[in-house]
Each structure stands twice: as structure tokens, then as C-alpha cells.
Amino acid sequence: MLTDITTEEDIKLMVHTFYARVREDDTIGPIFNSRIKDWDTHLQKLCNFWSTLLLYTKTYEGDPMSVHRGMAIDTVHFNAWLSIFNKTIDDLFAGETAQAAKNRALKISAVMQHVVNRPA
């Protein structure tokens, strides 16, 4: 029986599982693997990001939109990212916060698609 996302350990499991899958994906893996040189630091930043969004820990500092602006990514890439994210959540968790994670990911994807391809 799956449980909901309630702890920092749950966030860590979610983020690490998700990005292990991303790194192996034929569509978006090459993009992530070519840009991220220090995966440990990146994963910690993403744990802080999702912990802030889902558990309200206020551990994330940064501007994810500006970091991604101008990257050569499109709807196909965002759809792959979202599909992997949703599958990861569904494989690991069930509950209100798990659903909130999927809802947030959908919103992030929509906003980021708009921001990424907009001139700086």
C-alpha cells in the first residue's frame, strides 16, 4: 500500500528516483546529462525545491525560471519530463500531497514552457 509524501525522506526518494529515470530517458536524458556536472548538488537543490513546494520547509533559494531560459527545449521535452514525473509519483506515493506534486509539476511545466523560449 502506497503512502503519501509527508517527510524529507519522501521528497528525497521522489527526487532521486525521478532524476535517475530522467537520466536514462532517450528524450530528455541527454539534455540533463550534458548540462548538469554535479548531480549531488543539483539533487539537493531539487530536494529543497520540492520540499519547499510540498512540505513548506522554505529550504529552497533560487530562480528556476531564469536558469532554464533560452534552453533548446520544447513541448516534446516538457511532456517527457511530466510523464516521467507523474509515473514516479504514481509508483511511489498516493494521497493528497502526491496529487499536489503532480498538479504543481503540471503548472511548472506550463509556466516554464512559456518562459524558456521567451527572449531574455
How would you characterize this protein structure?
With 120 residues, the chain is mostly helical. It has a single domain, classed as Orthogonal Bundle (Globin-like), CATH 1.10.490. It is built from six helices and no strands. It has helices at 8-24, 29-35, 39-55, 64-68, 75-92, 96-116. Helix 1 (8-24) packs across helix 3. The longest helix has 21 residues, at 96-116.
Note the quaternary state here.
single chain
| CATH arch. level architecture | Orthogonal Bundle
Q: What is the total number of structural domains?
A: 1
Radius of gyration: 14 Å
CATH superfamily: Globins
The biggest sheet, with number of strands, parallel, antiparallel or mixed sense and barrel status, is: none
Q: Which shape, going by the Cα principal axes? A: globular
Distance between the first and last residues' Cα: 46 Å
Pfam family, one: Bac_globin
Organism: Chitinophaga silvisoli
GO molecular function, one term: oxygen binding
Keywords: Heme, Iron, Metal-binding, Transport
